[in-house]
Amino acid sequence: MTEKKAMKSQEAPEFKKLEIQGNTYLTTYTRKYENRKNWTKADPKKVMSFIPGTIRQVLVKEGDVVETTDKLLVLEAMKMMNSIYPPAHGRIKSILVNVGDRVPKGALMIEFE
Predict the structure, then answer these.
(1) 86 near 71, Cβ under 8 Å?
(2) Cα–Cα 20 to 30 A to 90, which of 27, 33, 47, 56?
(3) Regarding the domain delimited by 46-112, which CATH topology (the fold level of the hierarchy) does it fall under?
């Protein structure tokens, strides 16, 4: 073992605060935890794919005004047909997918004004 590795293994761990449901804990974080992508609130003007799949139907067009009960498209994933609804009332600015397109998780499918 090199001298640098030996010194590093003898160092005391660095404790950090972690808050969970109002309780505070002192703990060490794993490298994976420290390098994770932080959560961000979803943009209500964008409809993203929540699972990889294939677009089977597009039921709206650009300029349409939709309610939260209107079906936007059908995404097939793992042999299941998933109906995608808008997050809020609004007018469709752009549709970025077509029937037959394969989309990865997190792909932007529809954007609102």
Answers:
(1) no
(2) 56
(3) OB fold (Dihydrolipoamide Acetyltransferase, E2P) (2.40.50)
